[in-house]
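Input record, target 12 of the design panel.
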């Protein structure tokens, strides 16, 4: 495959994009199956730039666990 996309024909470009979509779907499935994710931090602005769907889900679950009663939290943490 050509590394310079400007030299690719339309069918070649479409095939390359479909391959990227497939790889992204595989990566997303892998993240979900092992419960990992990624995030991008903007150091200049001191804020989150972007994150994967799984990273957002992990953060949401973590906040939920922190909100529930301590006794329920202990039971929940033992089961995971």
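The sequence produced for target 12 reads:
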């Amino acid at each position: 495959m050509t590394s310079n996309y400007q030299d690719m024909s339309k069918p070649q470009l479409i095939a390359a994009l479909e391959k990227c979509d497939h790889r992204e779907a595989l990566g997303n499935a892998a993240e979900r199956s092992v419960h990992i994710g990624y995030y991008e931090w903007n150091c200049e602005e001191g804020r989150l730039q972007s994150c994967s769907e799984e990273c957002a889900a992990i953060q949401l679950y973590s906040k939920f666990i922190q909100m529930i009663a301590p006794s329920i939290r202990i039971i929940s943490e033992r089961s995971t």
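The chain has a mean pLDDT of 80.
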